[in-house]
Amino acid sequence: MQDPFIKAFDPPVGKAEEIRPGLRRIVAPNASPMTFRGTNTWLLGESEVAVIDPGPDNPRHLAAILEALGGRPVSHILVTHSHVDHSPLARALAARTDAPVCAFGASDAGRRADMVALGATGLIGGGEGVDHAFAPDVTLADGAVLEGAEWRVEAIATPGHFGNHLCFAWEDAVFTGDHVMSWATTMVSPPDGDLTDFMASLEKLRARQGDRVYLPGHGAVLEDPAGMIRHQIAHRRRREAQILGELVAGPADPETLTRRIYTDLDPRLRPAAARNVLAHLIDLHRRGRVATEGALAADALFFLV
């Protein structure tokens, strides 16, 4: 299958770029193996602005956003999800603009019972980090609509990468946060990430009509959303088949499976890969394809049913 990822993306950091009339993007100074060139903060509107994903708690990025606003009022601060590269700056920006912070809910919102139990065991790490203090002023249900002077967006509940993840539909475009990106497949790290929900959310976006462009939380604008969704679904199905194939030889824990499957991985990304494997195993466990020796846990031995 042809690689659909856009790696040729070198935007100016901290400078507002017009993407189309009424929409600008500012890339935060937080490039990393997990965030690519940095978090995309989106400024939607002219006479009054919605800021989508303010980004990490970084004074340079706050100053860049305020400079780009140029005194324009901010009516809403929209947060796709509360990882530390997307949401922490929301509170400081709200204090400077008097705009409400709008999101699905706090960082534990939208989490399934088995993920809550995993979290209670101390299962953390392997991801971008959680903004535990995040608390929106306005909670948005699936289908909620927000309007400004020149724009209208609809919230789309898309749990999976994170339990409280939302996408925001605007005209023929969707701000997709980390649910679908243009530079890499999306990480799903339990207990905050949930592969069962992630796959359902991909199907939910695939079923929508008229979405021609995705505006992700990292990387370039995605001009072929349908193709990327097909690739993401196929990628996950191939990974599932690999895991099931490895378990034919006998029980194994997620770390062992990760070493067998990801043979040429950058060592810095191994913890993230292990969480992706665990996410698949939890999904397979729910579907009755695998079982565990003992309680469901990050270091459990999994075997085929």
Distance between the termini: 30 Å
CATH class categorisation of the largest domain: Alpha Beta
The main sheet comes to: 7 strands, mixed
Work out the count of structural domains. Answer: 2
Order of helices and strands: EEEEHEHEHEEEEEHEHHHEE
- Name the helicity range: 25-40%
Determine the oligomeric state from the structure.
Answer: single chain
Looking at the structure, the CATH topology of the largest domain is Metallo-beta-lactamase, Chain A
- Radius of gyration from the alpha-carbon trace, in angstroms: 19 Å
SS elements, strand count: 14
Secondary-structure arrangement, i.e. CATH architecture of the largest domain: 4-Layer Sandwich
Beta content: 15-25%
Strand order of the largest sheet: 1-2-3-4-5-6-7
Mean pLDDT, all residues:
95
CATH superfamily of the largest domain: Ribonuclease Z/Hydroxyacylglutathione hydrolase-like
- Which structural class best describes the helix and strand composition? alpha/beta
Shape: globular
Low-confidence runs:
none
